[in-house]
Amino acid sequence: MDRRIHFISGLPRSGSTLLSAILSQNPRLHASMSSPVAGMFTTMLGELSERNEFSVFINDAQRKRVLRGLFANYYDGEVGAEVVFDTSRAWCTRLPALKNLFPDARVIACVRDTAWIVDSIERLIRSNTFQPSSIFNYQTGGTVYSRTEALVNGDGMVGYAYNALKEAYFSEDTSNLMLLQYDTLVNDSARALAAVYDFIGEPLYAHDFEHVSFDDRGFDKRAGTPGLHHVRPRVGATARQTILPPDVFRRFENDPFWRDPQLNPRGVRIV
């Protein structure tokens, strides 16, 4: 690539879109919502594998060139910024590959308490009561209990991302990984962004946390979930009570493993 690349990953509804919107104020940086690159990366890996009858003609050096070329061909000519952030929850499952392809790249994983993630998604569903959501395959039935189960199972929007995060956090490839807590991003934005810039080795930029903008209403409407990537102009926390039943909310009280120093033997940076 003609530019540096980093990755944003982690849990849904945990600040990745907000982080991208803030970073994009810096003309040196390009960041946006989840891109199709991770999906194309996964498909290409499969096509370059032994299931391809012509794989005898493909070696690892060629695979690496093709996969690096995917990023270059997607971003070069389309993005003028010198530094690109690509976003996908799947990147937490690709740390060894990313470290091999882009040794200087960093992965920023956004994290948040699972209960509040589920609460946030449930609020979206209830606020769009006449629009079935792609999150639940546009199904119109169910209860908060069935929706929660669908979200947190291994293939669900939250469960997959949570398992991917644990895979990355407890792996041997954590030197390029940082966890950014949602509460830090919204309550202490200056410190959060200073940590991000230090982590990626870029000079600090004076961001405007009072006037943040991001608009992907077309994507959200097509997904049947208006507001999915909505970012408020002013960065800050909003105090509220949960709309989840107490037993559902308490179910996830032990999920934030990153808060236990004893579970961080490799010293992953947590902000």
Describe the structure concisely for a colleague.
This is Sulfotransferase. The protein is α/β, with parallel strands linked by helices.
Using the alpha-carbon principal axes, give the shape: globular
Count of separate DSSP helical elements:
11
Main sheet: strands, sense, barrel = 6 strands, parallel
CATH class: Alpha Beta
CATH topology: Rossmann fold
Q: Note the beta-strand portion.
A: 5-15%
**Name given to the CATH homologous superfamily:** P-loop containing nucleotide triphosphate hydrolases
CATH architecture term = 3-Layer(aba) Sandwich
Oligomeric state, counting identical vs distinct chains: single chain
Task: Estimate nothing, just give the exact number of structural domains.
Answer: 1
* Class based on secondary structure composition and strand pairing: alpha/beta
Strand segment tally? 6
Please provide a written account of the structure.
The protein has one domain: P-loop containing nucleotide triphosphate hydrolases (Rossmann fold). Helix content is 39%, strand content 10%. Helix 2 runs antiparallel to helix 3. The longest helix has 16 residues. The two termini are 29 Å apart.
